[in-house]
Amino acid sequence: MMRPGKEAYYLNIAVEVSKRSTCLRRLFGAVIVKNDQIISTGYVGAPRGTVNCSSLGFCPREKAGVPPGERYELCRSVHAEMNAVIHASRDLMLGATLYLACLDVKTGKRMGGVRPCKLCSRVIINAGIKWVVAEDEQLTAVRFEVENWIKNDQGEWTAQNSNGY
């Protein structure tokens, strides 16, 4: 058995966290790490004490025919990245890395090419997180420097080779 590298290790943990999601569209998991220490985790789910979509048996956005990435005000869930940030102290998040993974609800398989939405990007910026690591379409780790999101506030992200830092 091959020992996974650090990025694969934390992305695998994010996959496990995603399995707690209550969303009927996608299962996201986030892990915030600093100095090789997990600070916080989060998954997609309705706010505490409210009914989630898996309990309702339907997704309001899907029922309304809303495509992915649009009309988040209709969503009952708090995103994985937001939940991870909510559960951590900002001083611990300064300079940290957020690992983001996604599973397809229907197949249970990993989905590559996912990125934080614009709302989550804003939360990540304000949290002081330095890097976001996700997977591309080939399920290879890609690293995004959050500072570049600030410099280019058009929502376009540039990935850095995960080996080049």
Task: Characterise this structure.
The chain has 165 residues and is of the alpha+beta class. 29% of the residues lie in helices and 22% in strands. It has seven helices and six strands; from the N terminus they run H-E-E-H-H-H-H-E-H-E-E-H-E. A six-stranded mixed β-sheet has the order 2-1-3-4-5-6. A hairpin with a 5-residue loop joins strand 4 and strand 5. 35% of the residues are buried. The model is unreliable at 160-165 (pLDDT under 50).
What is this structure's SSE topology?
Layout: H1 6-18, E1 26-34, E2 37-43, H2 53-56, H3 60-63, H4 80-86, H5 90-93, E3 97-104, H6 118-127, E4 131-135, E5 141-145, H7 146-151, E6 159-161
Which sequence of SSEs, written as H and E, runs from N to C?
A: HEEHHHHEHEEHE
Using only C-alpha atoms, the radius of gyration works out to 15 Å
- What is the percentage of strand-forming residues? 15-25%
Give the integer mean of the pLDDT values.
89
Shape: globular
What structural category arises from helix and sheet content?
alpha+beta
Distance between the termini: 27 Å
Number of strands: 6
Q: Helical proportion? A: 25-40%
